[in-house]
Specification:
The complex is a heterodimer. Chain A is α/β, with parallel strands linked by helices. Chain A is built from six helices and six strands, in the order E-H-E-E-E-H-E-E-H-H-H-H. The termini of chain B are far apart. Helix content of chain B is 36%, strand content 16%. Classes of the chains: A alpha/beta, B alpha/beta. The A-B interface holds A 16-17, 25-26, 29-30, 33, 38-53, 59, 63-72, 82-83, 85-86, 88-89, 122 and B 15, 17, 19, 42-43, 45, 126-127, 149-151, 179, 182-186, 255, 257-259, 261-263, 266, 332-334, 337, 345-349, 351, 353-359, 386, 389, 464-465, 560, 576. Strand 2 of chain A pairs antiparallel with strand 8 (183-188) of chain B, so a sheet runs across the interface.
Chain lengths: 174, 603
C-alpha cells in the first residue's frame, strides 16, 4: 500500500479521441471519491472525440473550477506521443510528465501500447500508463488500492482482468 | 416516445460521482419532474440520457422523449406543465433559437406545474456554430435564469428553478456552460419529491389561447412576476457577496466564478467577489451596493456581458463592454489569471492539433467520394452533423445551421437560374437533421420548383452526439416523406456500392435537367460504423510497388486508417485504425490498394 497522497493535486491527461482519456478521468474521479477526497474533473466531448485532440483535467482536493491552468499541473500524462509538447507545457516547475513512447525528452516514457499488445488488449494502453505514472508519482494520484477498486467498478466486466493486468504491468516498470 | 413510467423501487446511492449533466438530471428528478424532453446537442445531450438512467435506478416515474426538434420538445414539456405536471426540456444553446418562438410566447402565458428549460451554452465554441449567451436570451424572452458554476450547484439550481417556476407559474431557464455540463463531481442526493400531480388541464382561453387583446394584461402580469422574482433574488443563496470595502472588487458568474475562485486561492490574492448565480432578473440592490463599496469593479462572465449591461451605473465598472475582458472566446483560468495581472503561463506549444475526422468505415466518406466523382464542380451545401467533416474531403462548401443544406441549395439554384445558368447543386443532410428541419425545407424547394440533388446520408441514428434514436425507429420513412412532399425522383443507395452510387448520382443530376424534372433525392443508407460495423469484412493491403505516393487516397478518402510512410513517401494501412471496410480500394488511381483475398505480392 502506498502512503496517503498530498492533499491537493492537479493532473492533465492528453491524447486523441478513442484512446480512453475519458475513462481514465472517470477512474481518477471515482478513486478520489473512494478516499473521501473532493475531486472535480473536466472532459472533452462532441466533435473532438472523432479522432481529434482530447484532454482531460483532474483536480483533487478543494478546487472549484474543473480546468487546470497551463503551468500549474503536478503531473501530466500523454497517452499519445504527439501530445507530448502540450503535456510538458502544462507542467508546473518540478512537476512530472509521463508519455506513452519508447523514449522521450523531458518526460518519463513507457511503451504502454506494447504492454497493451502483449496483453492482447490494445485499448488498455491508457491503463498501463496510469499504472506507471501513479506508481512513479504517488503523491499526485489516489492510492493504488483506490485506483484498482475504481478500475474494477468502472471497467466493463469483460475488460476488468485485462485492465488490472495492464495497470500492474505498467506499475512494475515505474 | 418512451412509455416506460413504471414505478419500480430500487436502491440508488445517496452520493454518486456524476457528470454536470447527470447532476442536472438528478436535481430535476429530485424536484419531481415527470415529463422530460430533449433534442440531442453537445454539450447538453447527457441530461436526458442521465434522466433515463437515474429514473430507472431511483424508481422514479419520468416520461422521457427524444423529440424531433427543440421547438417540439419545448411545446411537449410546456403542455404537460399546463396540466400540472412538473416538466423539463433540455437542449444546446442554438437549440433555443429553434425553440425561441415558443419560449417568448410561453413567458406571457406562463405554465402551471414547474417547467425548467435547460439551454447549455458553449463558450469557446467547442461544438457549436456560435458563442451566443442564453442569459441574453433570458433578458429578451423575459424569463428568469439560473447560471451554475459547478455540477453540485447545477443540481441545486435545477431544483430551485423548478420550485420558482411552479410558484410563479413561469418557465425558468437553467444555463450551464460546457465546463459545467462536462465536468464530473461527487453529488449528494436528497429524497425525491413524490407528491402526486395528476394531469388536469383547466380550460382558460384568456390565458392558454390568449389573443393580442389578452396578451396585454399577460405582459403586465409577466412584468410583475419578474419584479417579484428580482426581489427574491436579492437574498438568493446562489448570489454570494464578500462585503469588505476595498479599492478593487470582482463580480463573477457561472463557471467563470469557479475559475476566479481557484486563481485567487492559487495566487494568494485577497479580492472581494460578488458571485451571481441568478443573472436575470439581476438583483440590482445587491449589485449596486457591491459596486458602491469599490473604486473599481471588474465583471468576469461568459460568453457575453449579460450581468455587466444590466448594472445601472457603470462608471466604476469594467468588463466586456469596456474592452477589459476579451469579447470572444472562453474565459479559461489562463485568461482569468491574465485579467488579474498574474504572471503569464508558459507559452502553448506551436502544435497544430489534429482536426476531427470521419471514423474509419463511415458511410458518409463514401457518399462524399461518390459525389465528387459524379458531380465535379458542384456547390455542396452541407448541414449539421458528423458529415460536416466532409469539409476534410473538400465536399462541403457551406454549413449554416440545422436544415440549411436544403434551404441554401434552393437559394443557390435561385441565384443561378436568374442568370440563366444551370450548375450542379447538391444538398447533403443527415437523417436526424432531415427529420429535425429538413422536411419543411424540402417541401419549400418542391413548391419553388427548384432543381437540385438532395442526398440524405442516413446512418440510422444521431451519431455525433452518441447514437440517440430517430423517428425512423417508430417507422418514419425518409423516402415516403420525400414522395409525400412532392419529390418525383427518389432512389436509395448503399454508400459502400461506390460504382452504383456514382451512377445513381449522375442519374439524379440528369433528372434535375429534364423538362419535367426537379428535385432528385438520393437516400444513401448505411448504419453508423461506430455502432454497427460493416457485416462484410474486406481487409486490404497496399502494394508498395504500385503505390506511387500521389496522395490521392489521403485527399479523397481521408481515412484515419491511411497514413503516409515518411521514409518511403508511400501510403500504408494503419491496421490499428482500419476496420476492413474495403472502401479505399475504389479510391486509388494506381489500383495499389488491394483486398487481401487477392494475392498481394510482397516486396
Amino acid at each position: 500500500m502506498i502512503a496517503a497522497a498530498a492533499t491537493r493535486s492537479q493532473i492533465v491527461i492528453f491524447g486523441l479521441g478513442g484512446q480512453g482519456i475519458l475513462f481514465v478521468t472517470r477512474l481518477l474521479a471515482e478513486a478520489a471519491e473512494m478516499e473521501g477526497r473532493d475531486a472535480i474533473v473536466s472532459e472533452t466531448h462532441g466533435m473532438s472525440q472523432r479522432g481529434g485532440a482530447v484532454e482531460s483535467h483532474v483536480k483533487i482536493g478543494g478546487f472549484e473550477g474543473p480546468l487546470v491552468r497551463r503551468g500549474k499541473a503536478d503531473v501530466t500524462v500523454a497517452i499519445d506521443v504527439t501530445r507530448l509538447a502540450d503535456a510538458r507545457s502544462f507542467l508546473r516547475e518540478g512537476g512530472a510528465c509521463f508519455v506513452n513512447a519508447t523514449a522521450a525528452e523531458g518526460a518519463r516514457s513507457l511503451d504502454a501500447s506494447a504492454i497493451a499488445r502483449e496483453l492482447n488488449a490494445t485499448r488498455a494502453a491508457n491503463i498501463a500508463l496510469l499504472g506507471f505514472s501513479s506508481t512513479a508519482a504517488p503523491g499526485a494520484f489516489p492510492a493504488r488500492a483506490s485506483l484498482l477498486a475504481a478500475l474494477e467498478k468502472l471497467s466493463p466486466p469483460k475488460a476488468v482482468e485485462a485492465n488490472r493486468q495492464a495497470f500492474l504491468k505498467g506499475a512494475e516498470k515505474a | 416516445m418512451d412509455p416506460d413510467t413504471s414505478l419500480k423501487q430500487t436502491s440508488a446511492p445517496a452520493r454518486e460521482v456524476l457528470l454536470g449533466n447527470g447532476a442536472i438530471a438528478r436535481g430535476l428528478i429530485e424536484a419531481g419532474c415527470e415529463v422530460a424532453t430533449a433534442y440531442p446537442g453537445t454539450p447538453s445531450t447527457e441530461i436526458l440520457e442521465e434522466i433515463v438512467r437515474q429514473r430507472d435506478a431511483l424508481g422514479a416515474a419520468v416520461a422521457t422523449e427524444w423529440s424531433v426538434n427543440e421547438k417540439i420538445a419545448f411545446d411537449v414539456a410546456l403542455a404537460a406543465s399546463m396540466c400540472g405536471k412538473r416538466t423539463a426540456v433540455a437542449m444546446k444553446q442554438v437549440g433555443l433559437n429553434v425553440a425561441s418562438d415558443s419560449l417568448l410566447s410561453a413567458a406571457y402565458t406562463g405554465c402551471l406545474g414547474g417547467f425548467v428549460v435547460v439551454a447549455a451554452d458553449d463558450p469557446g465554441p467547442h461544438s457549436s456554430q456560435t458563442e451566443q449567451d442564453t442569459r441574453l436570451f433570458a433578458i429578451f424572452a423575459k424569463t428568469p435564469v439560473f447560471d451554475p458554476s459547478t455540477p453540485r450547484e447545477a443540481r441545486a439550481m435545477a431544483m430551485a428553478a423548478m420550485e420558482l417556476s411552479e410558484r410563479h407559474r413561469l418557465p425558468v431557464l437553467l444555463r450551464p456552460t460546457t465546463r459545467v455540463c462536462h465536468s464530473r463531481q461527487a453529488i449528494d442526493a436528497g429524497p425525491l419529491d413524490r407528491r402526486p400531480r395528476p394531469a388536469k388541464f383547466s380550460k382558460d382561453p384568456e390565458r392558454w389561447a390568449a389573443t393580442p387583446r389578452f396578451r396585454l394584461p399577460l405582459h403586465a402580469e409577466l412584468n410583475a412576476k419578474l419584479e417579484a422574482i428580482r426581489a427574491e433574488f436579492e437574498t438568493s443563496p446562489f448570489n454570494v457577496e464578500d462585503p469588505r470595502p476595498t479599492p478593487f472588487g470582482i463580480i463573477a458568474g457561472g463557471c467563470v466564478a469557479a475559475a476566479v475562485s481557484d486563481v485567487l486561492a492559487e495566487e494568494g490574492l485577497d479580492i472581494p467577489v460578488l458571485r451571481i448565480g441568478t443573472p436575470y432578473p439581476l438583483p440590482l440592490g445587491l449589485v449596486t451596493r457591491f459596486v458602491a463599496r469599490h473604486d473599481r469593479v471588474l465583471v468576469i462572465e461568459e460568453p457575453d456581458a449579460a450581468i455587466e449591461m444590466q448594472i445601472p451605473d457603470r462608471r466604476d465598472v469594467q468588463g466586456r463592454l469596456t474592452g477589459h475582458v476579451p469579447g470572444h472566446g472562453e474565459l479559461t483560468p489562463e485568461v482569468v489569471a491574465r485579467l488579474l495581472g498574474c504572471r503569464p503561463p508558459p507559452p502553448a506549444p506551436p502544435s497544430a492539433p489534429l482536426p476531427p475526422r470521419l471514423c474509419p468505415g463511415c458511410g458518409h466518406r463514401s457518399v462524399f467520394y461518390e459525389l465528387k466523382l459524379a458531380m465535379p464542380g458542384a456547390i455542396f451545401a452541407g448541414d449539421i452533423g458528423c458529415y460536416t467533416l466532409g469539409t476534410n474531403q473538400r465536399a462541403i462548401d457551406t454549413c449554416l445551421d440545422m436544415g440549411a443544406s436544403i434551404t441554401m441549395a434552393t437559394g443557390f439554384w435561385r441565384a443561378h437560374r436568374l442568370d440563366g445558368k444551370d450548375i450542379p447543386i447538391v444538398a447533403i443532410i443527415g437523417d436526424s437533421t432531415f427529420f429535425h428541419s429538413g422536411i419543411p425545407a424540402l417541401l419549400n424547394a418542391v413548391a419553388a420548383r427548384a432543381r437540385f440533388v438532395c442526398v440524405v446520408s442516413d446512418n440510422g441514428i444521431v451519431a455525433m452526439t452518441g447514437a440517440q434514436p430517430t423517428p425512423a425507429d417508430a417507422g418514419a420513412s425518409i423516402e415516403a416523406i420525400c414522395r409525400a412532399v412532392g419529390v418525383k425522383w427518389v432512389r436509395t443507395t448503399d454508400p459502400y456500392d461506390v460504382e452504383g452510387g456514382i451512377a445513381i448520382l449522375k442519374e439524379a443530376r440528369a433528372w434535375t435537367k429534364e423538362p419535367e424534372g426537379g428535385i432528385a433525392v438520393v437516400v444513401a443508407r448505411r448504419p453508423c460504423a461506430l455502432y454497427q460495423p460493416p457485416e462484410v469484412r474486406t481487409p486490404v493491403e497496399i502494394d508498395s510497388g504500385l503505390c506511387d505516393g500521389c496522395d490521392y487516397c489521403l485527399k479523397m478518402c481521408e481515412c484515419p486508417g491511411l497514413v503516409k510512410d515518411r521514409a518511403t513517401g508511400k501510403v500504408v494501412i494503419d491496421h490499428t485504425k482500419c476496420i476492413d471496410c474495403g472502401q479505399c480500394v475504389y479510391m486509388c488511381p494506381s489500383d495499389a490498394i488491394l483486398p487481401l483475398k487477392k494475392e498481394v505480392p510482397l516486396t
